[in-house]
Specification:
- This protein is of the alpha/beta class.
- The chain is built from eleven helices and 17 strands.
- The strands form three sheets. The protein has an eight-stranded mixed beta sheet, sandwiched between helices.
- Helix 1 packs parallel to helix 3 and helix 8 runs antiparallel to helix 11.
- The longest helix has 25 residues.
Length: 383
């Protein structure tokens, strides 16, 4: 059986590695000229995830481990969530290169057309080449060409828990070699800054005493860049920009399998709606899909991965909508609840499954009293 993967980012390459492990020889098509560039995500993932894929990567792929989150808002005093080793910071270029070793990757191949005749898919490239495959896997990111084809030809039940509209956001991260040591840096921590103008947040991660990563997510590239530039100016952070990464984030709940086509990663909107992180869900869904291919039941891929993460994504989409429509007064009240209950958060939080914290909080009488009125207000509005 021939398998073709469109996209040789970490999701596509991890797909290739797992398929090779069970005896297939997949072909990967990548529109860029190499693996690892351009980097299009912040590169912060849960340590639990890394343990699942550590046989494919080297120690050089991991820059540092995260022990705490330092939360700053205009509405509360600073507070910390301390969980030793909860996450790690990746060297994304090295991480991607490790995952690509030994794979058959055709670079500089942009897909222009997908056609099906009988049971075979014919994939045309801008260079005039034609590839044939029995199974087509779309790992080609938030602007997925494979997804466009799948949605245009999907003949399943479009009303089955789907939210076919895709909401796009834009993420950007600067890597800065500082002119002077920034006193706000805390090693092995992520500093998170919320304000009323940013739909997500600004994050700062220190690579060492003289180098930081600072990023944000907003509705457009212009608004994301402005929020970062304004923050740097306000905090008087100066230095040499050694790298700038940027990319779209696609949020939604869409069909991800039809007629031997499977989507994964950003192409499948397998993204955490509250943070914009996509690597974790995507890499874990690769494992699910590979198991389905091995058992010759690819049609079970979507129900299986959605059993793991579907409710999490739906919860996150609703929670994001609530947050973006909250008044400043309600944001202040909610963040005060977080600050007052930081020890509860430390015991309960799951880096990849955000709903766990909220559902456990609803069982806590004191938290329910503090936050109940706000939650009820937005539920009643039906947002």
């Amino acid at each position: 059986m021939r398998i073709l993967i469109v996209g040789a980012g970490p999701i596509g390459c991890y797909t290739g590695q797992l398929l090779k492990k069970i005896g297939y020889e997949p072909i990967l098509l990548e529109e860029h000229s190499s693996v690892g560039k351009p980097v299009q995500c912040a590169g912060i993932v849960s340590s639990k995830l890394i343990k699942n894929i550590e046989s494919f990567i080297t120690e050089e792929s991991i820059t540092s481990y995260i022990n705490s989150f330092i939360i700053n808002t205009p509405w509360t005093d600073e507070f910390s969530i301390n969980i030793p080793g909860i996450a790690c910071v990746l060297n994304r270029e090295k991480f991607d290169l490790d995952l690509s070793k030994g794979l058959e990757i055709h670079f500089g191949k942009r897909i222009t057309k997908i056609e099906k005749k009988d049971s075979v898919y014919y994939i045309s490239t801008k260079q005039g080449e034609l590839f044939e495959t029995d199974i087509l896997i779309g790992a080609d990111g938030p602007d997925s060409i494979v997804r466009n084809y799948l949605l245009a030809n999907f003949k399943g039940d479009k009303n089955k828990d789907y939210r076919l509209k895709i909401d796009y956001y834009f993420g950007m991260q600067y890597q800065i070699k500082l002119n002077d040591s920034y006193p706000g840096i805390v090693n092995n921590s992520i500093q998170v800054y919320f304000d009323e103008k940013t739909p997500f947040f600004i994050w700062i991660v220190s690579e060492n005493s003289k180098s930081i990563r600072i990023g944000s997510v907003a509705k457009t590239a212009e608004s994301t860049k402005k929020s970062l530039d304004d923050y740097l100016e306000r905090k008087k952070i100066t230095g040499e920009f050694t790298d700038v990464i940027a990319g779209k984030i696609a949020l939604g709940n869409i069909p991800t399998y039809f007629d031997n086509i499977a989507l994964v990663g950003d192409a499948a909107c397998q993204v955490k709606p509250l943070t914009g992180g996509g690597l974790s869900y995507g890499l874990q869904c690769v494992q699910t899909r590979t198991s389905c291919i091995e058992k010759n039941e690819l049609n079970k891929y979507e129900p299986k991965w959605k059993k793991k993460f579907g409710k999490e994504i739906i919860f996150g989409l609703k929670a994001r909508k609530y947050y973006e429509t909250m008044t400043v007064k309600h944001k202040k009240e909610i963040f005060n609840v977080f600050k007052n209950n930081h020890s509860f958060i430390e015991k309960t939080i799951d880096y990849d499954n955000h709903s766990t914290l909220f559902f456990e909080a609803f069982k806590n009488k004191q938290i329910l009293i503090e936050a109940g009125k706000i939650i009820t207000y937005y539920l009643k509005k039906g947002i």
